[in-house]
Design goal:
Blueprint lengths: L1 H21 L7 E6 L8 H15 L4 E6 L7 H7 L7 E2 L3 H5 L16 H6 L1 H15 L4 E11 L1 E4 L15 E3 L4 H9 L3 E3 L6 H6 L5 E4 L1 H8 L5 E4 L5 E9 H5 L3 H35 L3 E4 L2 H8 L4 H10 L1 H14 L2
Parallel strand pairs: 1-2, 1-3, 6-7, 6-8, 9-11
Antiparallel strand pairs: 3-10, 4-10, 5-8, 5-9
Helix pairs in contact: 2-11, 6-14, 7-13, 9-11, 13-14
């Protein structure tokens, strides 16, 4: 009789506890470990710090954010690999660090896959993008919560090299970064892709080792300068990104209202960040124009008509390796194509 009473009481308390948990009340604050590898002076650090503080405030302390900056805990690449182990819950790595763990994620580097207008003005596109990319990451127990804009890449060239059409790039040696997709893209365009440290770019241009560099406006103004007095700007052809990733198993165990607070807070911050990234690009380009640099800006129509068809071999290579991811990426773009 006593044993049955104890069992009944235990079951009752388990039931009550489950109701309280389902209602969004945590017995104790949940630790959220966030990490990054960059310097505290980089714009990403204060943004991650602000995100952690806002989540703490809006969950009324039910989430306790702990931010470990400047590689104190992990490099971003190792942090991505550690998601799901309990060692880290959130990291915002550059896309290539995600691609190294999940190669199909290279679809984020497709030309014109991410466009400024869509990311700024269409919340549903961003939601669909998150869901599609989270599906790609699901086997690693990783969820994508948002995409951050770093910069829109452009091609800059040494004195005397002034391409205006895609055909003008054929045979040129251009320093590039990124994963396998962009190596294939440049090969499709007839370009010889050259890898080298950023610190060597200006000297390589001056010595004629390379004719051009695929880089950000900040990379142009702050690292290369007038060693490359001419730029070819291809709007939306390639926008470099960071990815806000979270341990999916950890996230799904949180009460629903906390999940919504975390996602909503990030959406709010990243919408502002996207515009700030665009504004910073324009600021850097104006710096170079004031120094005397010339910028030739292509139209999106020209890129779609003359550049994208040449990229077909790169797309085909990707589709053979990752047919399902490629199919879903095409479907998403088709849904929002004007």
């Amino acid at each position: 009789m006593r044993k049955n009473k104890l069992l009944w009481m235990t079951a009752t308390w388990v039931f009550i506890f489950s109701l309280v948990t389902a209602g969004g009340v945590l017995a104790a604050p949940v630790k959220m470990i966030i990490t990054h590898e960059i310097a505290l002076t980089h714009w990403k650090h204060p943004l991650m710090e602000k995100y952690g503080k806002l989540v703490e405030e809006r969950t009324k302390g039910r989430i306790k954010a702990e931010l470990y900056p400047a590689g104190q805990l992990y490099s971003d690449k190792n942090a991505v690999a550690a998601l799901g182990t309990g060692g880290v819950h959130m990291v915002w790595p550059v896309t290539v660090n995600v691609e190294s763990l999940v190669p199909a994620f290279a679809l984020m580097n497709f030309p014109m896959f991410i466009e400024d207008e869509l990311m700024l003005k269409n919340p549903q596109f961003k939601k669909d993008l998150r869901e599609m990319l989270s599906k790609v990451l699901a086997p690693k127990n990783i969820r994508l919560m948002g995409v951050l804009r770093t910069s829109e890449a452009l091609c800059i060239f040494r004195k005397g090299v002034t391409p205006k059409k895609v055909i003008d790039l054929k045979g040129l040696k251009i320093r590039t970064t990124g994963g396998l997709v962009w190596l294939d893209i440049y090969k499709s365009l007839g370009v010889t892709a050259v890898g080298m440290p950023a610190s060597e770019m200006a000297a390589a241009l001056a010595q004629g080792v390379i004719e051009g560099i695929h880089t950000s406006p900040a990379g142009w103004s702050q690292m290369v300068g007038m060693a490359a007095p001419y730029a070819l700007k291809q709007p939306d052809f390639y926008i470099a990104t960071y990815q806000a990733l979270v341990d999916d198993k950890w996230f799904r165990q949180l009460p629903q209202d906390i999940q919504e607070i975390m996602q909503g807070t990030l959406d709010e911050l990243l919408n502002l960040q996207w515009q700030e990234g665009m504004d910073q690009d324009e600021k850097e380009l104006k710096i170079m124009e004031k120094k005397g640099a010339k910028i030739h800006i292509l139209s999106k129509e020209e890129i779609k008509k003359e550049w994208i068809p040449l990229c077909k071999p790169a797309f085909e290579n990707f589709s053979k390796r990752f047919p399902e991811a490629y199919k879903e990426a095409l479907a998403l773009k088709a849904k929002y194509e004007k």
